[in-house]
Batch of 2 targets.
Target 1
Amino acid sequence: MSIQFYIDEVPDIVIYLETRLNFCNVNYKCLTYTPIIVGKECVPYTNYNEQGIVTIYLSKDICIGDRVGDAVLQISHEIIHCIRPPKAYAGTNVLEEGLATWFAYEYTRHRFAGTNYGNNLKPSDKSNYLCAFDLYEKLIEVFPDCVKHILHDNPNLVIKDIKSKHFEEVFNKHRGGFKDEYKAMINALILDFIY
Ligand SMILES: [Zn+2]
């Protein structure tokens, strides 16, 4: 598939993110997209610079042949890293990778609904991404719009800097209080993500 084909997917992903999840901080106007191989690495990632330019790099293998499903899965994961992007990359936390992994499956299932690809799609690997995904699902079971509220109430906060006090604030404000039973989940979500 051509680069342009993938670029054309981005606005639909952002619209879905903004309408379904109500995130309105997606910095997609500054998003460019360059599917290149970086060193020996062939993993997708998102790069930030001080001018606020966010570049999503897809893995090179995705650009060979007809792998639209895998490409959409990668783009929709990386687009989460474009929600209020930091000026420089400083790692992510479990929350951000969990949200990104969760959204990638959510969007890709929607995008390919009714096809074999969409119907069979679920996280299958045993990596830290799957652990992060499971934790994020636990969070949205008790508070679906939790991250949205935290970002809304803290206009300069990036996702990786969310701490337990931010969770406690929005639980108190919108969920009638923060329960002790949430503590272990929140503490796991705010850890640095280990790749
Ligand atoms: Zn990620």
Note: Residues 77, 81, 97, 100 surround zinc ion (CB under 6 Å).
Target 2
Amino acid sequence: MEPREKEREKIIETAVCPFCACLCDDVVISIDEAGNKIKEIRNACTFGVEKFLSAGRSERRIKKPRVDGKEADYEVALEKAVSILRVAKKPLIYGLSNSGYNAQQVALEIAKLKKGVYDISESICHNFLYPELKKGEYPFYYALLDEIRDNANVIVYWGSNPIESHPRHLSKFSLYPVGRYAMKGVMDRELITIDVVESELKKVSRWFLQVNPGTGGDAKIADLMKRLVKGEKDIAAIDFDTLVVKIADRLKRAFYGAIFVGLGVFSSENASRKVKAIFALVDALNKEGVKFVMFPMKGHFNVMGAVQLLLRETGYPFGVDFSRNRLFEPGRTTVLDVIEREEVDAALIIGADPFSSFPKDTARKLCDMPIILIDPFESPTTQFSSVVFPAAITGVEAEEIAYRMDGLPLKLEKIVNCEYPSDKTILERIHGKLAESV
Ligand code: SF4
């Protein structure tokens, strides 16, 4: 019995975890092929394990396609979805940060075909990064995670707590791994945390600076550090905080440093000012001869794929409106704005839950239009959708390509079989039928 059982076991040594944008590529999974079940997972964090195991848990899955709240088969759902998009004057195509690159491409073709709006979560999470980059005031000092792991001896997390959001970021890319110039791993590195709240990260940080949001916060600290790095003499005594001075001094003495900036900065009040001030600090460090990079902490596992695709195809990172001459205008062509101004008249949502993540008033306006949803899981959005397609879980039940947070493309494996088509297949069917009638 035993050898036969063994024959049925398949081991994948380098599976890529499709939960967060770290895309850890060292996950070992053993599969009972006969039973189509995952038997064991090694190296993934709890988020990753939960994501892989979600394939075998039926409670949260969408079981059948639905049309107007009633169960239907895929063909009926497909006809209804196509009929909605066919008559739509300007549909919104949104989500896709939890989809593979190939699915993102097909969705983009639908947006082009229908002259609709194509937007992704980046539009809400990191929208202040790009206008600052576009101004070109400061160069974008950036590096692959492997370069940071090899070289960095000073690591800063600013408005970010990877222990909660990206649990293996510290061990794979920043603080703990052995690098070419950090051969003793954590012994050769120092961690600095700058945040408005204390977190677990404080325990492993050499320096922890708590930001007071009421006093100009992060922007003021970044600006003060920049002036200290530049050696300005006229800094008013009132500006001095000993810890800020010590940290600025540490940054200046780094061999190579990385500042990982999180949503605590990007999604906060006056984010634009803060991002600009951190850019200026990184620029000042580089001009003083200290190699430093600024690295935005991306969340969803393939948000970078969506950004790369849009940049390649249109030159813009998110929020593109194919009905206009000027495709990209943050505040006009971006998802929240086109819904609030009632410019779109149907929505095709892929792997996102706007009814949990959008402001209430915006979500309410979404209810006024027909929604087509493609998702493996039930969510508040399923209840408000005219058409719901259950899909395979990308990277667990369907293979795909995803881009790590630093832009490195990686292949996601199909680990187990499932009864549902991939989001790419559903999008291809929708696109095919729409193309016939346009
Ligand atoms: S850190 Fe992210 S990618 Fe890595 S195992 Fe955890 S959830 Fe998966």
Note: The chain has 19 helices and 18 strands.
